[in-house]
Amino acid sequence: MKFIFADSMDMIDPTFNFEADRSGLDREMYWGDVYPHEFFPTPPYQGILVSRGIVGDDMFPGKYPEDLMMRFRRIGARKFLRMEGEFAKMDIFGDCGAFSYVDRDVPPYTPEMMLDFYADGGFTHGCSVDHIIFDFLPESRGMKGGSPEARRRFDITLENAEAFLKASKVMGKGFTPLGVIQGWSPESMAIAGQRLEKMGYTYLAIGGMVPLSADQVHQCLQAIRKKLSSKVRLHILGFAKAEQIHEFTDYGIASFDSTSPLTRAFKDAKANYYLPAASGGLEYFTAIRVPQATENARLKRKAKESGVDQERLVKLEQTALRELRLYDRKGGSGGRALNAVLAYNREFLWDAKKSVDANEAALEKTKAAVQRTLDEAPWKRCSCRVCREAGIDAVIFRGSNRNKRRGFHNLAVYHQHFMKFAQ
After folding, report:
1. Contact indicator for 13, 27 with CB cutoff of 8 Å
2. Each residue of 9-65: pLDDT tens digit?
3. CA angle 397–403–408, rounded 5-degree value
4. pLDDT per residue as tens digits for the range 284-320
5. Cα–Cα–Cα angle for 21, 27, 29, rounded to 5 degrees
């Protein structure tokens, strides 16, 4: 099994100065920044997935700035992602980015257009053109159930897959086409998989898994695997349950892509920092929020609406950072650091629309989470490059370079965890 990282221009500045809280004056984004596989001695994944929806084009703006989008199309995925040399054998998966056109009646890309994209980019694997189905009716049997729209998207996805497979023959042996499964129930997805195998696909990508619970994903995989021969490999697109991969090893999954270990560093409310757990699983810690007083949107809005003194906010912010660093360097109980963080948190977490009791309860939860992180000092228990270089800044929730560094750390920890179950 392979863990494929779904990239979204996730890079960091390796020279970022935490004390000064800035990059060097001569920093050029992308050119001086690094990907996770460049940052660590060993890549924390077996390959990268790039979505056309992330790269962008003249129909849909992606996350790439226009100059980098054009560079990607000009030099190809491998060179753009710096996956040459020692990384030359790593897989590069691609998909069409169906979420970017979910509201359209039909996908904006033809199978031929996507194959041109894959060929120009030098992808090793490419998914057929699918149309997302959001309906999920687990009790539906066979082809029963499903709205007319779901059935229409089901047909579009299979028609595109058939045309894609035929046209992909010109790509040669260095390219592996994946037929995408969409459906409104486990059994309709299984029927889609069966039809894709009959077309000639030997590698199938399962879409629509992102919003499903772990139990629902199990239902889908069980139904799909029953309809397929053992020679057909499966890839799960956007596998949001990456931390539970050990529960899904019985379905013959060859690969899956996910970005969750990285994005949970700054999108999750509590589980921002990973560590291996003594039980063999993963342990999670909450990052310590110290937003930038003069740049944080919530603080700026609060200052404007209620007249909060910004100078006072800056002083509280700097005190919190100073006390956290003193605690990291000199140890101790962490009480001063905790109090400094809570004093600042009281300013940006307090919601005037809620009652005093509700606000105080929220602050108590924050206190418990921050105290646990400070008491256990997880960054001191990790030897990865992020934690060695950043120290306590690895667990401070503040700006892209800290938050994505913590995401890099999570990727490295997750990859070690994943490798226990990969064989």
Report:
1. yes
2. 999 999 999 999 998 878 888 999 999 999 999 999 999 999 999 999 888 888 899
3. 140
4. 999 999 999 887 777 777 766 666 677 888 999 999 9
5. 100
Which helix H or strand E contains 120, and what residues bound it? helix 111-121
In the chain, what percentage of residues exceed pLDDT 90? 78
55 vs 9: CA distance, rounded Å: 9
Of 210, 130, 119, 118, the C-alpha closest to 162 is 130
List of residues 6+ apart from 315 with CB closer than 8 A = none
Indicate if the pLDDT at residue 350 is higher than 80.
yes
Dihedral angle over CA of 335, 341, 343, 348, nearest 10? -160
C-alpha span between 255 and 18 (Å, rounded): 37
Domain residue spans in the chain? Answer: 2-258, 287-398
Predicted confidence at residue 242, as pLDDT, reads: 82
The tokens for 46 are: 């077996």
For the chain, give percent helix, strand, coil, nearest 5: 50, 15, 35
Give the CB-side neighbour count of residue 401, counting CA atoms within 13 A: 21
pLDDT of residue 356: 95
Q: What residues are labeled active site?
A: 95, 257
d(CA 239, CA 414): 14
Instruction: Write 319-322 long-range contacts (CB < 8 A, 24+).
Output: 319/343, 319/344, 320/290, 320/344, 321/290, 321/396
Q: Is pLDDT of 331 > 90?
A: no
Place of tokens 């990052």: 287
Three-class secondary structure of residue 27 per DSSP = coil
d(Cα 137, Cα 153) in Å, to the nearest integer? 15
Q: Which residue has the tokens 């031929």?
A: 112
Cα→Cα distances 60→69, 97, 102, 223, Å: 11, 10, 12, 35
d(CA 245, CA 213): 13
| Domain spanning 2-258, CATH architecture | Alpha-Beta Barrel (3.20)
Q: How far apart are CA 320 and CA 314, in angstroms?
A: 10
Please write the tens of the pLDDT for every residue from 177-226: 999 999 999 999 999 999 999 999 999 999 988 888 889 999 999 999 99
Cβ atoms of 317 and 344 closer than 8 Å: yes
